[in-house]
Amino acid sequence: MTGSMTMQEATLEEMLADPLVRLVMARDGVEEAELRGIVQRVARARAGRPRRDGAARSLADAAA
């Protein structure tokens, strides 16, 4: 195999575009706006905390 393979976590947008995720959300009664609000609150809460590996944390890192 040539080149390098990297694995990346799906973004929130990618997850919300997945029909299976939408089915599970519907089954569980989870609204998109509710989920987005939770992710934003967690991102803000994590943004000020240092990472476990000591590297700087950005808001983008916190949302991941």
From TrEMBL:
Domain of life: Bacteria
Name of the protein this chain belongs to: Uncharacterized protein
